Amino acid sequence: MSPWIVGFSVFFGYPLVMSGYLSFTHYDLLSPPRWVGLANYRYMFNVDPQFWTSVKNTVIWMVAIAVPLQVLFAFGIAVFVARIKTGAGFFRTIFYLPALAPPVAATLGFVYILNPATGPVNTILGHVGIQGPLWFQDPSWSKPSLILLGLWGIGNTMVIFLASVLDVPQHLYESAELDGAGPLQRLFWVTLPTISPVILFAVVLGVIQGLQYFTQAYVAAGVAAGQASQAADVTSVNLGYPLDSTLFYPVLLYEHGFSEFQMGYASALAMLLLIVSFAVTLVIVLNSRKWVHQAGSR
Amino acid sequence: MTASATTAAAPLVRRRVPAQVRRRRLLAAVANHCVLIAAAIAFLAPFVFIALTALMSNDQALSSHLWPHPVRLRNFIDVFSKAPLLRWTFNTMVYSVLATIGMLVSSVPVAYALARLRWRGRTLAFMVVLVALMLPQQVTVVPLYVMWAKLHLVGTLWPVIIPNWFGDAFSIFLLRQFFLTIPEEYLDAARVDGCGELRILVTVVTRLAKPALAAVALFSFLYTFNDFFLPLLYVGESSHNWVLSIGLAQFRSFHQVQWNLTMAATLLVMAPVIILFFLAQRAFVEGVTLTGVKG
Fold first, then answer.
1. Which residues of A touch B153 (CB under 8 A)?
2. pTM (2 decimals)?
3. What whole-number distance in Å separates Cα of residue A261 and Cα of residue A247?
4. Looking at residue B127, which CATH number applies to its domain?
5. What ipTM score was computed for the predicted complex, to two decimals?
6. How far is B211 from chain A (nearest CA, A)?
7. Contact list, B159 vs chain A (CB under 8 Å)
8. Which of B40, B50, B137 faces A94 most closely, judged by CB atoms?
9. Are B89 and B72 part of one and the same domain?
């Protein structure tokens, strides 16, 4: 127990407190931190134009759009897999596999497959007479491309949903059927309420992961930028490529903290992330009492 | 309730299902399968395209042809000479193995204490684990970086390995949930036999919890194998310490625009995880399900 307490204090408690302190300072790692009061926060909200871009990108795209899409998609597939009698294991494996693909590898694969000029997807679209979009090269398509990549990797959520859909007691379906409920009604009034705790879990996890979205954005921007310029230097210059459209909040934090070494400002960004992720989790969990079905008396 | 009763009832029941209903059920099953097959093709397509490109020549990868002609298996040999893949693999293994072992040794006792021992502050400690679980790692990353920089360990893999030796919130949580399901009687029996808590933990609990330990170790391996953010911070500037994820992300900057080789490397990085999955499929699915059970 005690090594854990030591480790916890060193790797969690101390940095948490330090983050709070550093967020009120100017610190570049070379000279000691200098107290600047609320300057970092003022700069964040009032001056930094990239801050609001990254907030919008993250909150609208990676939370408000991506999370419901992923949950719905995973749920839909789980329901279909649960309904068939033969080959369910086979399909489950196929839908799970992409979730296993290491994020960097999966992103590289997608940037290639969706490359505008000669990528397989646009080639096939061309054969059926559709002019494919520029995907990762186009500021208005780069985020949808990342969402597509996210939908490809919903295997974990799907497996959890599938297990809980299969766990719904059969007698509930039977009594609903006796009451004259059709398949859709059974889905809405039996399956959904029974597995709602699991859905809540997936939503909370999805939101937290959405707020931390980094690897795919970083890799996709770097590779797509290299592809466009042919120079292929994967440096921080490419963060957010194209045109800050993939500049998500953690990417901004990375840029300030670890390529410009503005540790104070990065800490201020981190503190805001802390508050927001806490608040979001709290709101979802508290509100959930209204709509999450609680089995038993609790 | 004899056999004859059931055999007599069966045709009766079967006769009661009208042909129309049967046809509708068949159609529903066919429609189900069609949807699933279409979705499965869409899910497999990226793998197929990556694999096909990995077998192409560079010129062909830059053309709009989808099928490799001629098939170039050489690509899989060439990648090793173009980039230090083996070096990256070795670094990844060092990270994965040291982190996973450290995580197990440190997390199992904590999880046991949280699940099975009574002590003051237990609830508080569990809340702390939950909070640590929910917090984005970016929140604490700046002071940690400063700390490792002061210890002159930035540029090595130690900053990503060492924290695992002091317990990992996710593993602690998962193991605790599993330990709670072990019947108290087993532990009491061991206590009656004069076992200390530590011996109970080592001999009884770890044996009963094998599936959970396997799942946690598997997740830790996967996490470290895939980890990108922390290695990027700490070894991003020192290429001799790159792990596979960093190396792969920079791969195209080594040899400009060689998509065929990039895809071959991509496939090689995906392979170990997918092979591991097929070897340990049950542990995987059980583990993933275990994470969702808590609700």
1. none
2. 0.81
3. 18
4. 1.10.3720.10
5. 0.81
6. 17
7. none
8. B40
9. no
